[in-house]
Specification:
By secondary structure, the chain is α/β, with parallel strands linked by helices. The protein is built from eleven helices and 18 strands. The relative contact order is 0.19.
Length: about 400
Amino acid sequence: MTNQYYDVIFAGAGVMGCAIATHLLQRDNQLKIALIEKDLTYRYSSTVLSDGNSRVQFNVKENIQMSLYALEVLKTFAEDMTVAGEVPDVAFRQQGNLFLTDEAGRAEVEAGLALQQSLGCNVSWLTPSEAKEIYPLLNVADGLFVGATFGRDDGTMLPQAVLEAYKKKAVALGAELIEAEVTAVHHQNGQVTGVQLKSGEVLQAGIVVNSAGAWGTQLAKTCGVEIPMEPVMRQVYIVETAVQPEKVLPLLLLPSGTYIIHEGHGVFMTAHSFADDPITTTDFSWQRHKFEDRIWPELAEFMPAFDSLRVVDGWAGLYAVNTFDGNAILGEWPELRGFYLVNGFSGHGFQQCHAVGRYLAECILGQPPTLDLSIFSPRRILENAPVFENKQKII
């Protein structure tokens, strides 16, 4: 670590930190930026443990706009992120997202669909029989759902490939990547002054970005900032079935919030966020019985072919759950100058890294935003003005 003073320090070099750093350096290549990451293997990183889905099916206009921007970015991402001849391949697979709805959620889903379509999204309403044409495994005889929305441009990709692309680009543009743990944010007279590392070393900066993901709540507390965010462990399961669809099926979201991603052949990935999921930053275990007792019966009900399957793998990762309203907390904390938050994405952050990277860079540089995301400002927490996505449980 040659420099002890930086213009911007990122506490966390996951996809958010690296995307913001990339956008900052693309706008001002003279900036001295430190990307500090406690574990550069990213073993427990929420980015890497993400399912890698991207969707335009949101109910808040700005969330939809972020996803539309992501689709534009992904068209030229490989070319734009090429470093020294190394071309990233994020394997973006636009198999579509099929979201089923029951009668209780129908009105809200239809309102969301109207907003999505008004913004130019390629999403349409399907009847149960039309949904079955796209997803032949579905049970439409028992009235389990009244319809579905199908986002044709939605899909999945490799989250680690996106992270590595932004990280390598940021470093190529001049960011310093440091493997260390930030233990405290220093401040004086209402202004951030830098960070302290676990080693005891102090790095100075007038701007510190809390990009620590699920660990961000504790980091914020070190400078007196209380953010309504909990690190919640979510378990994912890989199952193998006897069914062999001819082509890759869309991501399927059931009305309860359970989702299933077809990986190819008879292999599927599935998960559900439960109210009693553990709050932790240290437990990354996964339990087969949770799938067998609470997810499998529902899968078999909606897709009878899933009555017989085999759990072949699984993992656990952390959601940084915003307990205030479930949406991102973006921007400078009003009561501490230079302390920027990029926290609380509640499970849908990965897909928003492109727009958030651009927006936070513009905020830090004092530039007018290309896409105004001030609706997600931390100020809303102090003013008790929540921005709710919807009542439905969504990935």
